[in-house]
Each structure stands twice: as structure tokens, then as C-alpha cells.
Amino acid sequence: MNLLRALALFGALGFSLFAAGCSGSGSTTPPVMPQDGNAAPLMSAPSPATTAGLVHAMTSSSSLVGKIVYATYYSTAHEFQIETSSGFYWVQALPTTQWSYNGLTVRVGVWATASGSWKTSTTLDASSISLSTSSAPTGSAPTHVQTAEYLTSSTEMRTSPAVYAPYLSWAYPIYSRSGLTRAYGIKTVLYTSPIMPDRSTYEYDTLEGSYPSGRATTCSGGLVTTYNGAGLLSDPTKSTTTAYFGNVVNHTISMVEESNPGYSHPWDLIYIDNDGPLYGASSTPCNYNPITWGSAQDAALAVTGQKFILNSLSVADDNVPTFVQRLGGSAIEGGEFEECFMTALWSSEEDAQLQAVALLKREGKAGGAGFWCYADNTSALGASSIGERMYIYASFLLTYDPNYSVFEESFTTSPSTFKVFPETGFVPLSPVITPTASSSLETSTGAYLREYNSCYYRGSYVGKCEVIVNPSTTSYVSVPNPWGLHHAMSLSGGGVLDGGYASFAGAAPTSMAPKSGLILTP
After folding, report:
1. CA distance linking residue 267 with residue 253, whole number of Å
2. Could you tell me where the DSSP H helices lie in 125-234?
3. Is the pLDDT of residue 24 over 50?
4. 8 Å CB contact between 265 and 253
5. 490 pairs with which residues across the strands?
6. Domain's final residue, options 441, 461, 478
7. Which one of 418, 441, 464 terminates a domain?
């Protein structure tokens, strides 16, 4: 369980206002937006006229893909102009620029992919250039993987969700901001904990006071407790538990509806905490079977008419199939793995993602929050955790599906406090294989590898890519690089709103340290 969800979603607004500075000049007129009770004024999103400048200021590395239409040559550098889907841009190459000629030369009609930093609004200083004979694949790519964040810090509660919308897919806002957040295209989730309710919560008081026969007991009638005696455990096989679950769900919905007048259905999913193995239970409930309990629970939840995501997947490899099976329930949209890729359960996390996505597809369930990877229980600074962030994100991408997988982190960043980081803008598509088990991705070096035919950063085509992970806690391994890619993605700084950025100019390494991840590009 992450207690932050339970506490923050009901919290009152704080008092500090995030005053953010953007590079560039000129004023921005805030759009007219609904206000949230007596909250301080919302921080506005940049107007369309300043959005491009803000992106350039916050992302010092960008990519362009286009056909060369003109070239000029100088003694120390040469420039060429390319035509992209959004217009004409100049690319300037310097002696330090890293080239991937691929048997071609700079001439009109050749396609170029350039990464670097913006010198002006129409000129890119290239750190790397790759030439090819054809354009990027047709069709658009998402500008980021599915991402998630709480939006419950005092700064976030005073900031317009429009600021976060370009980077964020899912959020746990405080209930009074659910409608506003959803109005900007960010899907919202409501928190509940009816399985292992802790003392001093609505769920605990309701189970203890109104539905006591729904409490789990031993076969001798002894009460099963949790949280060292401070919590209860509900038993979904008991006849009154359906009514108990319905009461909790209806109470939660009533709260969010009352807090959001003028907004219709201000939520997308309801989250159910502590739905995995019965950790911390004082004893085993009578006739407990996780499969039987899962089926009974889904039947009870289906009566509510709502859709749910279960915090149920944080288990050892042997138990992954059992708890993934719960996601097949008619009321269930997906499951969460907490401390994702932060524990010794690396293969469990990879296999849980593969199995969860495969099950949801077999069941014909639409894409969304199918596998929620939450790298939580850390407050380390994101800017000081680059290696760990790369390891976690590469591990996520190794088995992810862009339509079903969600990525969330809890590393801290300031001053925005918005815990979404620049690596989430790297989106690999068209995998060479879709494995059924993580073991099939292991290479002869001991590293794990997945190749993708089409990879993008913030919607710009990068080319092919290789995602590589060394999950060993003790051994260095050689880097498998079957496509002979030349560059590796690197990260700098903190969150996307705090100057953090990704670049693709560094050379591809030949070895990997223990617990490390790599993303190789042309």
C-alpha cells in the first residue's frame, strides 16, 4: 500500500504558489478556467504563441526528420535544409557532430535524422546526424508513453492541469480537482482500500460497524487482522461483502461528484489497494484460496457497474499467473505492480507485464491502464538518480505495450514537484518480437535485449533502437548490439518541467554495469 494516496486525495489545499519562469520574452495571458473552491489562482498554461519556446527551453535536445532540399558548405561546418512534416528547418553540423552516413552522402533527396539543440527557432545545432534513403514510417507516434502522477503537492494543486497535459496520461488528483484535471484530457483515478482497511478510514468503520460479517475469520472463528492489529481484512466470499464493496464505491463516487459540480463523471477508474497476497495478515482466513477469492471479488465489484484497477501484481514469479488471472474479471481494467523494477523481483515484474497485457488482449479489453508500473517508495532526487532511472525505464520498455502499459515514478524534482521525467518521451514501436516470457529476451552476454523497428522521441522519428538491461546485481556484461547502433540515450537533470532532458549524442558503450539499462539509437 502507498499511504500517500489515501492521505493526499482528501487533503486540503496548501498555501505556497509555484511561480515558474519560462525563458523568452513577452507576457502570457492566462486562459479563463474554473476555480477550485477557495484555492489560490491556478498557474496558467503557456499560450500557443509561447509553447514552442517553452518546449525548446525545457528540452535542450530535440530531433528532426526530413528530406534534404538544400545544402551549403563552409570551412569548419556545413548546413543543409530539410523539409519535415511541420515545415522547413536548417541543420548545422560542426566538427564535433557524430555522423552515421550509412553509405550515403549529404545531397538533395537523401533523408536525414538530426538530434541536437535549437540555435534559433528554425536552426538545429546537430550533435548527431543519420542519413537514410527513406522517410520515417507513416503514421503518428505518441509524444510519450502512458504516464501517471499524483498531482497532490501544494504546487500541483495550484497549477493548471493544462501545464501537465502534454506529458501526463493518468492522475490521482485531490477529489475537488478531478473534473478540472479530466477536462484537460488527463484520465483520473479514485482511491479506495476495501480489502485491507486500516483504522480511522471510511472502509474500516464501514466494515467494522455496518458489515461485520464480511470480515475475514479463521475456521475457528478468530478475527483476521492486518497492520499489526490496526487493520481488518474483508472476505469477498462472505454474503455481505458485495454490499460492503458497493457501499465503499458509492461513497467514493458521491464524494467526488459533490466536489465537482458542473463536471459529468469526473473519474475514469477506481483503484483498489492491497489486493495481492495477504501480507501482514495475522492468520490465514478459513478456506482461503487466491483464485476463489479473486472470482468472488470480481463478482462483487461487477455489481457496482464501475471499472477498477487492482494493486495485485507485486508477487514472486511463481505467483504471477495466479494474480494476473484476476485481471480477467469483467469489472477489472488492469493491475499495478508497486516498487516496479526496484526490488529483487525483476523477472516477476517483466513476466507480470507480459502476462497481464496478453490476458487483457485475449479478453478483448481495450487499451488503457492494463499494467501499471509504479516505481515508488523512494523520495530520492531524480537528478541524482540517473542510473537508476535508466535501469527502471529500460526494464519497463523491455516488455511494455504502448496501448496497455503505464509508467509512474516517485523520484522527486523541483521546483515543479511534477514527477514525470524526460525519458518517458522515448517511445519505441514495432518490436521485432513479442515474447511470452522475459527469459526469451536473454542474450549470450547475460544482458536482456529487445529490438524495435521504429522509435521516437517526443513524436520525432529517431530510427531503429535496442532496449538493453543487465538485471544482475553483481556482474558486468558485454553490450549486445546486433544492429550495430552507434549512440545511447542519456539523461540529465530532473523532471520535464525542471530542465531535465534526454540526448542521443553519446557513443554506444560496450559493457554494462550491474543493474543498468541502455537505449541504443542510430
Report:
1. 9
2. 161-164, 178-183, 202-209
3. no
4. no
5. 503
6. 441
7. 441
